[in-house]
Amino acid sequence: MNIQLQNLTKKYGNTIVVDNLNLAVDSGEFLVVLGSSGSGKSTTLNMIAGLEIPTSGNVCFNEQVVNQVPPGKRDVAMVFQNYALYPHMTAYGNIAFPLKIRNDTDINLKVVKTAEMFGLGGLLQKHPKELSGGERQRVALARALVRNPQVFLMDEPLSNLDARLRLSARGELKTLQRKRNITTVYVTHDQVEALALADRIAIMDKGVLQQVSAPNDIYGKPHNTFIAGFIGTPPMNMANVTHCGDNRLAFGDATFTFPAPLPVKTNSILGIRPEKLTIAPAHTPAALPGVIEYIEYLGNEIISHVKLSPGITWYVRGAVEGVNVGDRVVLKFSPNDVHWFDPTTTTRIVF
Ligand code: ADP
Q1: Alpha-carbon distance 315 to 273, whole Å?
Q2: pLDDT bucket at 206, cuts 50 / 70 / 90
Q3: CA 12–ligand 1 middle distance (angstroms)
């Protein structure tokens, strides 16, 4: 089943919550809608499910407009952050329910197999009130995944799990979706989850779609400064630069020589990811001068904070033995790793 969203708009009163969204989800694709809270992700998902009626535009399944088709007739399975389990049924009863109402066969086998997958084997006879939040969420996931719908719709389904369970549930979800090849739209505000799960990521901000690309492209070629700053921890380093002749750029109250002919002719925003910078001794030419402000030890990695100019501190993944807080250094980089953005429109200018 493929899904097309055509000029999809949702307004509440005068507030536009989803603004003229055009997006196609391929058959069997795992599409993640990523954005911060209030960006219109859930509203979009609810319109696909039929739980919200679009103000204008269309939701199509296999090129057929389904705007008027009620949720129960769309053959979608949904998992919400606030899993709505039937309180009077056991975990087994909850997971079996979608199969029972469809007079499915091999119900017991399917329930037991799906429950095992989510580590629920010993909990099947318990009622929701006897389960922890994480266990209830796993029952909700198992209930959605026990059958083969045309479309899976998931709204932050892993957010109530602890970190360890989230990691394993992520793996299970992805494996299962691959195996069954069911078109999936998954909403999250968690960029790591998006990067890990998605075939493609659709990033939304204030109801407007910003970019739809494979995770590598979202990270490697963000279309604008919003996406560049949103994806990546620490985020991409960015600063406004002005040209001052030859290959020289002014940067706050500093200037430096760019290590190659400049690919842009006008003032721009220059961006570099923290892992693409290396710290070198202060006299190294064609690099950004700065002072080590802080070195953060995070167990599996170190992040150096380097002050380039008043108000401009950049992050560098890694540190250099013997280089300490207060030392003058330069940041070296390859010109190929620089992202350029237009300071007026904030969009990418070199691809
Ligand atoms: P997200 O899922 O990205 O957090 P939502 O789609 O839930 O965002 O909400 C987008 C915006 O729409 C929010 O500002 C929210 O307050 C508003 N909104 C959502 N549902 C309603 C509603 N039923 N009535 C009025 N405003 C709503």
Answers
A1: 8
A2: very high
A3: 9
| Closest ligand 1 atom, residue 40 Cα | 6
Section 239-249 average pLDDT: 90
251-268 in b/e form (b: 16+ CB < 10 A) is: beeeebebeeebebeeeb
Calculate mean pLDDT across residues 260-289: 91
| Residues lining ligand 1, Cβ inside 6 A | 12, 17, 35, 37-43
Which amino acid is it at 270?
L
Q: Which CA distances in Å does 255 have to 251, 309, 313, 317? A: 6, 10, 15, 23
Closest by CA position to 304, among listed 209, 237, 217, 216: 237
| Single-letter code of the amino acid located at 212 | V
Close Cβ partners of 194 (under 8 Å, ≥ 6 residues apart): 32, 34, 188, 201, 215
| pLDDT for the residue numbered 276 | 97
Asked whether residue 246 carries a pLDDT value surpassing 90, the answer given is no
Q: Which of 18, 43, 204 to mutate to test the pocket of ligand 1 (most atoms within 8 A of CB)?
A: 43
Helix (H) / strand (E) element for 212: namely strand 208-213
Q: How far does residue 34's CA lie from ligand 1's centre (Å)?
A: 15
For ligand 1, atom 22, the nearest C-alpha belongs to: 12
Distance CA 256, CA 244 (A): 10
| pLDDT for 125 | 97
- Does 50 score more than 90 pLDDT? yes
> In the structure encoding, which two tokens stand for residue 222, read together?
């963000």
- Which residue has its alpha carbon closest to ligand 1 atom 1? 38
Say whether pLDDT at 164 is over 80: yes
- Helix residue spans in the chain (DSSP H): 41-49, 91-100, 107-117, 133-145, 163-180, 191-197, 215-220, 225-230
181 Cα–ligand 1 center, Å: 30
